[in-house]
Amino acid sequence: MDNWKDVVITPQTPLGDAIAKIDASSLQVALALHPDGTLAGVLTDGDIRRVILRGQGLQIPVSEAMNSTPTSVPASMSRDAMLELMRPAFQK
Fold this sequence. Notes:
Elements: E1 8-9, H1 15-23, E2 29-33, E3 39-44, H2 45-53, H3 79-90
Parallel strand pairs: 1-2
Antiparallel strand pairs: 2-3
């Protein structure tokens, strides 16, 4: 599975189901969409690790684990401009 549509979930999707989608994909991320198709958040391995470390179960909704404020850029943005935008996040 390499199509981004294969990793689409909803914020209400149980975390365990989202993990299965991520595991079946080479994209290593799940995209949580609102019913209107807008991005609600993203779920990564790091988000999943934090849930496990907090002792929460895999039945919680993705909305409790996902990043609901991901940084996005236009597809036309250059790689250098993207790296410059992300630099502050890597310096924490």
